Amino acid sequence: MTLRMSIYGTLVNRVPEIREKYHMVRDAQTASWQRPVAWLYLAALNAGWLLGKRQPRHKSGGEIRTARLLSAAPPESVSSVREAPEGLARRLMEYDVISFDVFDTLLFRPFSRPEDLFYIVGQKLDYLDFRRIRMEAEAREREEHRRRSGSGEISLSDIYQRLGREAGIPAGEGMRTEEETELALCFANPYLLEVFRILRQKGKRLIALSDMYLPEKTIRSMLEKCGFSGMEGCFVSCEYGCSKSDGGLYERVKKELGAGSCIHIGDNRISDGENAGKAGWDSLLLPNVNTAGAPFRTGEMSAVAGSVYRGLANAHLHNGLKARSRDYECGFLYGGILALGYCQFIHEYTKTHGIERILFLARDGDILSRVYRLLYPEEAGKTRYVLWSRLAAVKLSARYYKYDYFRRFLFHKVNQGFTLEQIFQAMELPDMLDGLTRQESSGRQTGPGGTNDAAGQGTGLKKTDLLTDGNVRRIQEYLLDRWEEVLAHYDSQLETGKRYYEQALSGAKKAAVVDIGWAGSGAMALDVLFRRVWKLDCQITGILAGTNTRHNAEPDMSEAQLASGKLVSYVFSQAHNRDLWERHDPARGDNVAMEKLFSSPFPGFRGFSGPDWEERSLRPDTDSRARQAAQIQEGILDFCRLYLESGVGKYLPRISGRDAAAPACLWMEAERKNTEKEDIQCVLA
């Protein structure tokens, strides 16, 4: 290793935080005179570290700052929206030649940093640490070329000749793999694609300028693949020995074209802006999408998944074409990757375990079932969106889960401001309330020990009384004394529910029940009904995004089922991503926020009662909540479509639960002031 690379490794690579901060500054500087500024910054970073500031950066602090920005800012796409493509095209018509920068201007990659494409190249070459080695080889080759010829312009062949000598990577295979990967994963900037099409239709002279090591032929192929065909010229720095960064490429192109007035469009302030001006060209700077989106993104993701997520999000929201609503962005940014990763997990689990039917429970399952069918259209016959809810589960499984019936209907509602009339209405027992109030008025209520309950004598209970810790036990005893009468109220719904689920299963012997969370009571209630009540020969597994956490009143409620595999969780549980399990707090609104991400325009399902129960439950609402849910769903689906269209899914087929949840966790932090104190467990809703 050369002395220079040894020093570089010590000053840059020894401390990850220094490396990250240095590259954020250095990679944005393209002019030779800017290098000393970056070196001074690097020296300051190392000095600070040596003087005692050695503690690693607490990412949570940065995440909290980003969360505060999210909560205060308008929809982030608003900051990047530009004039309509037709308007820009009209302004550009004044010039004889219109020039475009290529990468990060006409073409996007599905990564937040250009060099992250090397992760995929290394994956295809089966070469560990390829990204770092590839970057190091390019930097060394440029330095040596600059020392020999005075220019740092090199070709892809130069880079791979060095990689062949020093790393053993066959140059031909390496070059071919990198060019194929660039071509496969690039996609068009939709804003400039519209501008380009208008200008091409008008017969304008259109060219591309790029400071790049890729050959002109490859870059032309990439442009044509993305719709930018018909360029008069494509001028690449490595083939001319000069660049936009040193200003020489502008002079060469102007001489070659013999052009009159020229304008160059790009994203770099120096190479695309100032240097174009020095050469007598006009310029138009369009902000780099990844720079624009960076302040809004989470840093708590793994290298490849995080770069792909940020790259897709930034390209979509900051290309300047459209201003999106906050609800759309909520779905796109925070629900999209979570739904995508969750459906990948569901697919892998059901395939591995021979699951014949996937039941997506209403209402969270609405968008999940749509995403699943988008990702796996060949499995459309395997999935069902089925009507179910906490309310339906509590009522229909009451014969077996008697304790849960009283816990959810009574004890979870104590001192919450609910009247007895509301409670009995929710239980669908309004006819039994009169019996309670008459009994209380006559003073016949007995306490737990069998003696007269003095609290019931004299005044009694009225329908308008609130449910409190002082009367809840008397109400429970009243219902327990008449338990068969209570259950009889649900008999017809049990029969209807059995027919409905027999049809949904269609003879399947193994089914997965998919829900967001949290205790798995929806899946377990169906399991009890299938096996113990309806006698259906079908094995049920519950799949959850997340479980109850340490902040729940019953944190261990489902641990036995999770331990046995009866329930499985994607994002967190006591045994999986435990730090996320400890952080997630329903009391601070986290359950509400997560369920908001998977909201649906459909109304809540209250049970199998009434002649039109199914039609009523599948008819979208039209209120503000439903419109908000529709916007969120549109954003989720657009993210998943973009992921599929980018082609990167071939190299990132599984997104971990931690990665998928990281953006949502950031959003939950921002939303806490709005969602705290909301009762997502409320079965009265």
Automatic annotation (TrEMBL):
Region described as Disordered: spans on this chain: 438-462
Organism: Candidatus Eisenbergiella pullistercoris
UniProtKB keywords: Hydrolase
Protein name from the UniProt record: HAD-IA family hydrolase
Coiled coil feature spans: none
InterPro entries on file: HAD-like_sf, HAD-SF_hydro_IA, HAD_sf
GO molecular function, one term: hydrolase activity
Taxon lineage: Bacteria, Bacillati, Bacillota, Clostridia, Lachnospirales
SUPFAM superfamilies: HAD-like
